[in-house]
Design brief:
Strand content: 35-45%
Distance between the termini: 11 Å
Number of strands: 9
CATH architecture of the largest domain: Roll
Helix content: under 10%
Largest sheet: 5 strands, antiparallel
Number of helices: 1
Shape: elongated
CATH topology of the largest domain: Chitinase A, domain 3
Structural class: mainly beta
Length: 141
């Protein structure tokens, strides 16, 4: 029986970048469970599972446009250090959360620190990257 739109499935997956570095994997842990077409995951990831049978594997490559978008320079923001939370000791690579005026939480990554400012990047850490996934359908529930 092949997976169809609307099915709840469990998959094991490994995600890598074009340079071969791994950014995520379910191997060694519990399989990822989701409903096909629910929109909880990248659309191309979900639709790849359609037509697969348990035990079958597929490889896909998702472009930045279909993944987390291209890197946007307008999402590189310079913040005055005095606007950071009291007691925070910023370090390059550190991730911070910020709440937008709409109440949405976004993750910022510190890219640079100067005497008076902190430069942060609000792009998703996988923005601008091609994403390669090896997906194995474990079970259709």
């Amino acid at each position: 029986m092949a997976a169809e739109q609307g099915d709840i499935v469990k998959v094991h997956y490994t995600g890598t970048l074009d340079d071969g570095s791994q950014f995520d994997s379910s191997i060694g842990g519990e399989p990822l469970e989701f409903k096909i077409g629910d929109g909880a995951l990248l659309e191309q990831f979900e639709t790849t599972v359609i037509g697969m049978n348990p035990g079958e594997e597929r490889n896909i490559r998702i472009s930045p446009e279909d993944g987390y978008g291209e890197k946007r320079s307008d999402l590189i923001i310079t913040l005055p250090k005095n606007k950071l939370a009291a007691g925070l000791h910023p370090e390059v690579g550190q991730q911070l959360q910020m709440q937008t005026q709409d109440g949405e939480l976004i993750v910022l990554t510190i890219k640079e620190i100067t005497a008076d400012t902190v430069i942060v990047d609000a792009n998703h850490n996988l923005a601008g990257q091609f994403l390669n996934f090896k997906i194995e359908l474990v079970e259709i529930i």
